[in-house]
Amino acid sequence: MAPLSLPNQPVASTAVNISERDKTLFRLLADTKSNREIARAIQVNEEEVGAILQNLYNRYGIEHHNRRVAAGCLAVRLGIVQ
Question: Of 47, 49, 52, 53, which one has the greatest count of Cβ atoms within 10 A?
Answer without folding.
Answer: 49
